[in-house]
């Protein structure tokens, strides 16, 4: 009897303690983030960790290893609970079945309705949603107001068409042989899809084919932009080093105050404010051929839950939280990072700098191509996209370059 | 004697078993998997079905691969003699164990311990048109009128990489050559001196012939390393301009991890392995024949 009572008491104690232990013990999630998104992601994760008992452990993965790591991870069943990656891989990952369906949760989330359309589009596959905008970036046009003033241009009037970029660039270059009107990284496919393709899109073109039967590089915008770039190149308005720049000097020359106008990402604003605080620069949308026609490339990271995540409900809670006003404003905007909900662009943190507001609003006019094999068509060092730019701009064969790239892109899309 | 042989055999197998296990697990099994993968259209994102020799037929028609392979062979043919001649010359100059020569050896060998990626990045910026010290040096010395854009031309980019790799790996060959030179019996050299042989006679008649094995080893290591070149081109040229500096391994990387075509990448790897194997065997056979003469 005594033994039985003791055993019973012990069992009760064990059960009670295990219940309390479970209740009191917070979970810990893992999250992978690509290196270039780490800074922004860390702000959100730190905020989450400081306000929640369940913690997130952030692991940085080199940008060019993310696809391999996630692919092998999913196939081996060793995945993080959350993953933040370049949004252009979303179609490939969704098709491969790597990601958890979040449709019901996101559609029930009132904040999701105000997420930039580009993020919703890129994360949708066969009617289901697999991710949400996380740490956005978007392309913009930036100009050096000091150089504009010296060149006799109105420093507060940015170029509103590609033609105006050309004209303004001529005047800036006239300031001196080592001052250039315009810059782009001629050997960087990623930089150019980010900054050059929106000008083509704004001019009415479509860049990438969604499948083998879809057309690539449609409309006159592609040719008009390439011809303008070619003219600026032959007139010496772009530094010679641009031809070999694989992105390593994407922003370096603008920071050295030798460049009048350049397409870049919103990230450059905080970089410039930090590195060259005295530089007087402006920010506007990337223009097309006609005034009022603008566009942008919506980039940055999406957040998703890999199939095999061990904390799916908690991971979903994090995604729901990162769309809240608190996370968007206190986690992102407070740190000069764009919110993924454009409606929050006018906030107290951005109010002091209208350039950031303009950048945030570019999310609303931006596009992101929903295509498979994006890396193959665009990001690869031997991609048809970069070959087209180089052949057209540096060799001058604009029509031949477009025709060749069009065929190659269609072939890749059809694979 | 006959009774102990089986037991000795088992002991022998026991001794080599760790090495066999290592080779089996880390070389043979992955190699078989690679061969198997090369017969599929497997993607990095999963899936894949058996397509027989489909990938190999595709390689035959892949102009990009053959161009990359030819570029790799050109790189190997140019770089290997440079490394051999300079390495051997430095070994001759520093083979004696005086403090100054030991210091020189250490300085020349130092870049070998730096990672290849780090050294490539270092040279990438040294060659930079805007901030590169090499351009600054050459313009100050009036060698060139204005800074050069090294990576805008395939030839200049090629030589930029050759210069960086020569700096990086020269010390390795030098150390091997020094080991070879120092292993030559002193009495032979002394006898040659007594017989009136001059410095260059000793180099060409004694040191070089007696260093043949080490020269073969160093040439093989250098040539195979050059055939597998990747990091330096990935970092310094990104395969450009216009894809003219893609190496064979870079092409494999592009296909496997950028285009996600793992099966095709595996087939390319097999082809490159076979090519390197054939070249290495030829090199060994030719050296053996010249030694026999």
Characterise this structure:
The complex is a heterodimer of chains A (415) and B (293). Chain A contains 19 helices and 12 strands. The longest helix of chain A has 23 residues, at 2-24. In chain A, strands 1, 2, 3, 6, 7, 8, 9 and 12 form an 8-stranded mixed β-sheet that branches. Chain A has a two-stranded antiparallel ribbon with strand order 4-5. Chain A has helices at residues 2-24, 38-51, 66-76, 90-96, 103-107, 117-122, 145-150, 162-173, 189-195, 197-202, 221-234, 252-255, 267-275, 312-322, 325-332, 354-365, 374-379, 384-395, 398-413; strands at residues 28-34, 55-61, 82-86, 124-125, 128-129, 132-144, 180-183, 259-265, 281-284, 286-287, 294-295, 298-304. Chain A has 2 domains: 28-137 and 298-365, D-Maltodextrin-Binding Protein, domain 2 (3-Layer(aba) Sandwich); 138-297 and 370-413, Periplasmic binding protein-like II (D-Maltodextrin-Binding Protein, domain 2), CATH 3.40.190. Chain A is α/β, with parallel strands linked by helices. Chain B contains 13 helices and no strands. In chain B, 74% of the residues lie in helices and 0% in strands. Chain B has one domain: MetI-like (MetI-like fold, Orthogonal Bundle). In chain B, helix 2 packs across helix 13. Chain B is mostly helical. At the A-B interface, helix 3, helix 4, helix 17 and helix 18 of A face helix 12 of B.
Q: Can you give me a brief rundown of this structure?
A:
By secondary structure, chain A is of the alpha/beta class. Chain A contains 19 helices and 12 strands.
The CA-CA distance between the termini of chain A, in Å, is 76 Å
Uncertain stretches of 5 or more adjacent residues of chain A: 10-24
Main sheet attributes: strand count, strand direction, barrel closure of chain A = 8 strands, mixed
Largest sheet of chain B at a glance?
none
CATH class of the largest domain in chain A: Alpha Beta
Highest-level CATH class of chain B: Mainly Alpha
Question: Total helix count of chain A?
Answer: 19
Q: Label the overall shape of chain B.
A: flat
């Amino acid at each position: 009897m005594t033994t039985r009572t003791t055993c019973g008491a012990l069992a009760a104690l064990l059960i009670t303690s295990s219940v309390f232990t479970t209740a009191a013990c917070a979970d810990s999630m893992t999250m992978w983030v690509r290196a270039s998104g780490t800074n922004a992601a860390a702000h959100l994760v730190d905020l989450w960790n400081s306000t929640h008992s369940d913690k997130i452990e952030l692991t940085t993965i080199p940008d060019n290893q993310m696809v391999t790591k996630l692919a092998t991870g999913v196939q081996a069943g060793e995945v993080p609970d959350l993953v933040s990656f370049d949004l252009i891989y979303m179609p490939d990952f969704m098709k491969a079945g790597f990601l958890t369906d979040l449709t019901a949760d996101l559609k029930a989330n009132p904040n999701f309705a105000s997420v930039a359309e580009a993020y919703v589009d890129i994360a949708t596959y066969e009617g289901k949603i697999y991710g949400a905008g996380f740490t956005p970036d978007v392309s913009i046009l930036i100009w050096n107001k000091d150089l504009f003033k010296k060149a006799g241009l109105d420093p507060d009037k940015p170029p509103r068409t590609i033609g105006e970029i050309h004209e303004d660039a001529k005047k800036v270059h006239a300031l001196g042989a080592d001052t250039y009107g315009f810059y782009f990284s001629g050997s960087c496919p990623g930089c150019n899809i980010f900054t050059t393709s929106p000008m083509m899109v704004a001019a009415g073109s479509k860049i990438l084919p969604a499948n083998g039967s879809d057309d690539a590089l449609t409309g006159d915008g592609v040719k008009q932009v390439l011809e303008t770039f070619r003219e600026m190149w032959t007139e010496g308005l772009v530094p010679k080093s641009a031809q070999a720049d694989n992105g390593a000097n994407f922003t370096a020359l603008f920071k050295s105050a030798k460049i009048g106008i350049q397409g870049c990402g919103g990230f450059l604003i905080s970089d410039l404010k930090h590195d060259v605080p005295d530089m007087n620069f402006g920010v506007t949308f990337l223009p097309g051929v006609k005034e009022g026609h603008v566009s942008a490339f919506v980039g940055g990271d999406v957040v998703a839950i890999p199939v095999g995540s061990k904390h799916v409900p908690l991971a979903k809670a994090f995604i729901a939280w990162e769309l809240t006003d608190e996370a968007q404003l206190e986690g992102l905007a407070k740190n000069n990072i764009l919110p993924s909900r454009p409606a929050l662009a006018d906030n107290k943190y951005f109010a002091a700098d209208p350039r950031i507001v303009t950048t945030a609003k570019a999310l609303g006019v931006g596009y992101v191509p929903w295509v498979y094999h994006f890396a193959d068509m665009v990001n690869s060092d031997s991609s048809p996209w970069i070959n087209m730019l180089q052949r057209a701009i540096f060799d001058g064969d604009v029509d031949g370059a477009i025709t060749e790239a069009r065929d190659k892109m269609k072939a890749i899309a059809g694979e | 004697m006959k009774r102990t042989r089986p037991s000795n055999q088992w002991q022998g197998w026991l001794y080599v078993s760790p090495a066999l296990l290592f080779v089996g697990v880390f070389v043979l099994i992955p190699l078989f998997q690679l061969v198997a993968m090369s017969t599929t259209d497997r993607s990095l994102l999963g899936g894949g079905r058996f397509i027989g020799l489909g990938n190999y037929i595709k390689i035959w028609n892949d102009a990009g691969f053959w161009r990359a392979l030819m570029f790799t062979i050109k790189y190997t043919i140019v770089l290997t003699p440079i490394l051999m001649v300079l390495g051997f010359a430095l070994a001759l100059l520093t083979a004696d164990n005086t403090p100054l020569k030991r210091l020189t050896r250490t300085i020349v060998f130092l870049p070998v311990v730096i990672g290849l990626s780090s050294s490539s990045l270092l040279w990438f910026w040294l060659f930079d048109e805007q901030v590169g010290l090499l351009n600054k040096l050459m313009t100050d010395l009036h060698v060139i009128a204005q800074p050069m854009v090294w990576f805008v031309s395939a030839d200049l980019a090629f030589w930029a990489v050759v210069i960086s790799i020569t700096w990086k790996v020269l010390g390795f060959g030098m150390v091997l050559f020094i080991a070879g030179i120092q292993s030559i019996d002193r009495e032979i050299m002394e006898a040659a001196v007594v017989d009136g042989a001059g410095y260059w006679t000793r180099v060409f008649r004694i040191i070089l012939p007696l260093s043949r094995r080490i020269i073969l080893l160093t040439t093989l290591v250098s040539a195979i390393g050059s055939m597998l070149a990747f990091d330096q081109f990935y970092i310094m040229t990104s395969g450009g301009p216009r894809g003219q500096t893609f190496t064979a391994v870079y092409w494999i990387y592009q296909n496997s991890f950028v285009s996600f075509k793992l099966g095709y990448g595996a087939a390319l790897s097999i082809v490159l392995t076979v090519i390197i194997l054939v070249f290495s065997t030829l090199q060994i056979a030719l050296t053996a024949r010249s030694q026999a003469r």
